[in-house]
User: What shape does this take?
Amino acid sequence: MLTEQERAFLDALAKAPIPTDVIGLRQAMETFTPMMNSNPPEIGAFHEGVEIRPGLTADVAVPKGNGPHPVVVYLHGGGWIGGSPKTHRKLGMQFADAGYLTINVDYRLAPEHPFPAGLDDCVYAVKWAGDNAKRWNGDATRLAVGGDSAGGNLTAATLTSLAAEKYAGPAKPKAALLIYGLFDFPAQMKRDANDTFDGMIRAYAGAGYPAILEDPRVSPLRAVKAGAMPPSFVICGTADTLLPETHSMADALKRADIRHEVVILEDMPHGFLQMDVLSGCKQGLDKMFDFLRRTI
Assistant: This one.
């Protein structure tokens, strides 16, 4: 049951205006960044803006100790048009605090770089992790890929893309973290059409809109089949409009006979894993890290 403090926070969150334009959405995320990153844990080391290739960087959060550390490639949320490793810095450090060398990818954003630019960056970053994680005592044979919201979509799209090309490099992922993601654009558009969502979709799809929304690299639920995904952790809150997407992904994983665990937390909104004022934040993180410990 929610405390009075939690209810007050959620009431204020629900009343906050949601911008419908790219600049407004980016500014809103920047406004919330100090709150989302307050009181980060102490970790072994932090490297900002590590070059993966020209035009693509990542922040690397290193656990304490000598390792070898299992590795998480993290893909931040932000509606494909906003967010950065900076907006998700504390979350990346929390992964490192739990023992995971965390590579927080600064993939290209729409509308300046529409699909497939961001996805291409994410796929490249996973492969790069396989060759470079050892620089920080990372063990790329124990690698997970995860992300929240748009990053959840990109996680599923990255993993199914790697499976489709039969990638067998040193960073073959062993686990997926699908955090309140959107996995089927046409289905969600039918459920919850609104100006903010429509703007994000059009920006990400670019000139390919609307036909490109049927592409399984854009709507990766359509690419889930036997062998296309590693063991997967799927999490969402009941107050999140993307909850049906979580259920749809869980159903697809079940049909494909892919090991998965689903966590649905009562009353939690979109983005709750970055809201430590909410009890569901710690609960969700604990369950996710427990899944990783048992899986990789």
